[in-house]
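ingest -> fold -> write
write: protein_1
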Amino acid sequence: MKRLSLICIITMTLVVLVGCGAKSPSQVVKSYFDAMQKGEQTQAISYLVDAIETQVGEQEPTADKELSAALLIYLSKLEATILSETVTDTTARVAVEVSGLNLSEIIIEIFFESLGDALNGSKLTDEYLNTKIIEKVNNGDIQTREGVIFLDKIENEWRIQPEEADFIALILGSIENK
């Protein structure tokens, strides 16, 4: 009976210890994209390396509510699938497939459409540009792209390196995807 009690106590202790552990690099990446998709910017930023060095709450307010709404729609369309994970003691690489709009292409399309309209005599106002952005974000095609997200282990927590070119291309898309 003592053996059975001891085994139960050890098992329960291990379950509690494993369950309370820090997130794996893949879990951090998945949590980041989930927060972005839900529009939880403060939560998403907390998974980035820079979140440690800056005040998360001190973000400049976006002056235009329409652009903020377009950004939230854009982010809500981002979905990530973890493909693989490579971990060392202090660094990790998580290969992902991201589906979402391509903001780089949207900006280029708006630029050329606006240029054409301006050359035809149309006046380009903020309202005109906002309408174009919202239209493109609402009606844009979803693209799939693959890349690697790099993470560093800081104070026993995995943090995403947001300055890496792959990370930026995964979030914003790139012109080469077309």
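write: protein_2
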Amino acid sequence: MTAIPTTVDYAAGTATASVERQGTYTLLLGSTRDFSLPAGVAALGFHGAPATPPELLQGQLSDPSALQVMFQFRDGVWLVYRPSGPSILNSLRSIDASAPLFLSLSRATRWAGPLLFFGDREVPVASGFTAVTYTGLDAVTPEELLAQFANPGAVSAIFLFDNALGGYRTFRAAGPSVLNDLELVQPFDVFFVLADRATSLLIPEG
């Protein structure tokens, strides 16, 4: 599958794309969710076409030159894209659909790329840490999210990166509730799952 080239009009709050047929997903054009991304490290729950080049996503920022580094945690390894560095050193060469991304930004910017919906998806969760983009249509509590795992008992904790906070909010499945400061998981939030054994997470998108 190939990436869908898009043009974002930030003044109008719209995105347009040129596509014939790209598998079975649906491209929603028109109004898009506008993500505000603060300077420093910001999480971005990507929800676009499979195999999107990092350069294309960078071009969808309202200020593309603000991007210093793009990271994705995939299969236990951090993949990196540096727009100003030698391309041979970039290990992040394509972005998965629903990829959880982290951006290092020199100044605040925005992203309003198009959204693609694949229907319900099952996310493999490995033993240890797994990064996830929440692509559900509605916000859920951590308890509701925990119930969507095939084996909720395998999950020790959820760490959600809050851009406004500039750090993580935490939900520990077995810990004292007073220590948990994660109250809601919103659509397109990025979080890490800490699991003591492999399981999977079902995220309904419809």
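write: annotation protein_2
Residues 54-59 form the longest helix (6 residues).
DSSP finds two helices and 17 strands in the chain.
pipeline exit 0
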